[in-house]
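Teaching assistant's notes for section 4

Start the section by putting this record on the projector. Ask students to predict, before seeing the second block, whether Alkaline phosphatase will look compact or extended. Collect guesses on the board.
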Amino acid sequence: YGIQVNKLLMGSIFSVFITFLSIKKYQEKDPLFWNTWAQHTLKNALTLQKLNQNTAKNLILFLGDGMGIPTVTAARILKGQLSGQSGEETQLEMDKFPFVALSKTYNTNAQVADSAGTATAYLCGVKANEGTVGVSAAAVRSQCNTTQGNEVTSILRWAKEAGKSVGIVTTTRVNHATPSAAYAHCVDRDWFSDGEMPAEAVQAGCKDIARQLFENIPNIDVIMGGGRKYMFPKNQSDVEYPGDKKHFGTRKDGRNLVEEWTNRMKNKKAQYVWNKRELLSVNPNNVDYILGLFEPGDLPYNLERNTETDPSLTEMVELAIKILRKNPRGFYLLVEGGRIDHGHHEGKAKQALHEAVEMDRAIGRAGLITSIYDTMTVVTADHSHMFNFGGYTPRGNTIFGLAPMLSDVDQKPFTAILYGNGPGFKVINGLRENVSTLDYQIIHLIYFSFPFSLSTLPLSPEGNNYQAQSAVPLRMETHGGEDVAVFAKGPMAHLLHGVHEQNYIPHVMAYAACIGQNRDHCMSSGGASSLSPALPSLAALLTLTRLLC
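Reveal the predicted structure now:
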């Protein structure tokens, strides 16, 4: 009886869904549909002629590591398909931002950039060599003696020195390339702890990145991500995986950085957490400082996350903002969706795109608990990847599906998503692998016969980790060299327009907040701020009063 009821219910839902698609398809055939939509968009665009020139009390940078423009487009389609739509017409949260620019991502010594040199650009305001963080291009990778005198400071430090609260939230290790440029000065991005450093570098006085996290900028208010093993003495077992040696501590100096932090913060409202339960039990009104280390290394992919023990990026971001926003002087928050990059390197497009969708969800949550009047939010990427999709796929084609044709060379099907290089290169008996596998047949038959949310499809773990075909065989897929998008909203967001060098980004954000070297314009000759405060003017209030009357 229950099965019959379920069949009836699913049949009804299916009928409603088909009706919805039919109505939408009919609407799109009418020019009035497109003209009306375009006119509505035009009216919204005209409202942007009055620029938001308020002072930014708060600054948020969302960094999608490896989130090139093809990844943004594919994530948009996936987001729509996860909610049962065709996907192309969907809006990401970042799509709603009124200002968009392009960022040139090259490093000073690399046409195609890495995440360390780029992080130095969009956090410290200067371009740098690949593999180095928080140092200028005068520093040489792995050469310890080129560190001193070449340090450059980040916008996180500028904000802290201006009295703002500051935070870092990432799905990678907190001492990975992106977050480390916010606080560290290191000629090698891989010096996570002293256990990963050459002995001569340690003897020469260079500090590992984990150590710099706690020593360089006193009392970073919010630190959340992975990287637990780099904080503990070598061979100390992990609290979550006590029997797994690969998760043991790595520090050769015997220091316990978490214990040191806890002792130093014992007279402050500070808390250390290492799992989701502890995180969600935190009352942001009673905590001013939080250190959250949720994995020995990187956090798991969102598709593989244990929802009982592992926090999502959205959950971390929400708590971070609620803690930081208590400061009357405002805050700076760096948020990294770091495993987009890892998914692409592994050729696992499904993992990468679900990471991008989760970051977009976090962007939406941040928007709900902040205001565009006093919060500047920027979304961008450090670099792109050799990822793309095409093949004349029809409208609504599942983003992970096959193109609607066979190759006219080898007469075999191919997926819409492909990589220029990477581990997906497979040859069987001298010929390209036939991708028309059971997984893909299930996806196509079910999705097009019964088009509900993709999250309900009976895909195997292998489906989540399917490596899309690539043109050139590599163990790890590489970054792409094209420009990446910059989305901006809030005070002074209009300054992000056109095509810019990547190091321009923190200068704009600092200008909007009147911090760092961008303070002179904030004070008039009488000593008052020349930027508008994030409060309605008297004239605006009088106008509103007249309208209401």
